[in-house]
Amino acid sequence: MSPELISIGALVVMFLVATLLPINIGILAFVAAFLIGTAALGLDSEQIFEGFPVSLFVTIVGVTYLFSIAQRNGTIDLLVSQGVRFVRGRVALIPWVLFVVAAALTAFGTFTPAAVALLVPIGMSIAFHHGMSPLMMGMMIICGAHAGAFSPIAVSGVLVNGMIADTPLSVSPLVVFLASFGFNVLLSAITFVLLRRRTEERPADGEPGEGERGAGNVGWRQWLTLALLAGLVIGALGFHLQIGFLALAAGALLALVDMKNQAKAVDGISWSTILLVAGMVTYVGILGKAGTIDMISEHAAHVGAPLVVALLLCLTVAITSAFASSTAILTAIIPIAVPLLLSSHLSAAGLIAALAISTTIVDVSPFSTNGALVLSNARGVDRQRFYRQIIGYTCGIVAFGPVLAWGALVLPGVL
């Protein structure tokens, strides 16, 4: 059996075992990466761990550590109360406010995971305090970040437009941006309607922190935390510094001035999420070395009818991007789509926009940075149950999102 089929089979088995049994899929992924990497691909340990997501690891550790301290010293509760006051008590508007803020951040050049990392901890705290669905809150923040991601000055927008500029195709950057923005607004509206009345039960260990008992008192620790959070925003957005390192530095400083809660803050780091994500992303590296992702893309591109191929490409990038880097997938799929567009009557702008949407909307997956941040920052939830809810939501997005994008942006061009 070829390494490609072995790696796909192992992935299916991992999902089945992790779904039926209370075992962290990250553990299974590390084991599978080792076995397939050594036995089927002949890799050594260094080559196997080339796929380990160091940057993602530091980001999740840093962000969850910093916001764990901020939660315990009352700063998060202060931000929550101010947010509610901003919308004059209409709590249902807060997810939309965070959607707009996330879209504005990414539209003006913030990398999508950085915007999500800044907003998700606040959104999760608001959801916890007001009995809102953390799934709805987290997904709407991610959709907001995706909505602005393809503006002409955003990271993803510059990438796509630069690649298209090197081809004979003519695609308006504004069309791709507006298509992505509109699709994510629609996706957020559906998410809001379906999930806004679903609340999570708070487990017994979800007791309020020290800051929650005195959120009304703004002391020097809260002011210091707010100053450090502002520094985090400026460093990440203005100077493009690694947000995980900034968060760790800010958290270490806060720990030095509040040693009493230091141990509890470390407990707030979502180690189970880190294990899950690190294992799966490492395994995705093995999929790449085995040629599995390339094999799937090539098979989709050689089906025949251009309209069908376009649909299969949208589905392919959605499935693979749920486990791998959306930027890498997008970079790989556009060169494959160019010959198809040049030899057919398909709308170039429509297909490029559909591929961009299909690649990014699945970043709600818990195996991506965005989805992992939602999972790790959720409060008052059963982690395993919440993980399954995110998986279910991701499956829905993977199944229907690319089809809707294809139907709305590609199909009308040939009718």
Notable characteristics:
415 residues; single chain; mainly alpha
> What is the residue-averaged pLDDT?
82
Q: Overall 3D geometry? A: globular
Strand content: under 5%
Structural class, by secondary structure, is mainly alpha
Helix content: over 70%
Low-confidence stretches: 200-215
- What is the rounded distance between the termini? 43 Å
Element string (H = helix, E = strand): HHHHHHHHHHHHHHHHHHHH
Total helices: the number is 20
Beta strands, count: 0
> Major sheet: size, sense and barrel closure?
none
Q: Please give the radius of gyration in angstroms.
A: 21 Å
Structure, explained:
It contains 20 helices and no strands. The chain is globular and about 65 Å long. By secondary structure, it is mostly helical. The protein has helices spanning 3-20, 25-40, 45-48, 54-72, 75-86, 94-107, 112-129, 134-147, 155-165, 173-195, 220-238, 243-256, 262-267, 271-290, 292-301, 306-321, 326-342, 348-360, 369-377, 383-409. Residues 200-215 have low confidence and may be disordered. Helix content is 72%, strand content 0%. It starts with a helix and ends in a 6-residue tail after the last helix.
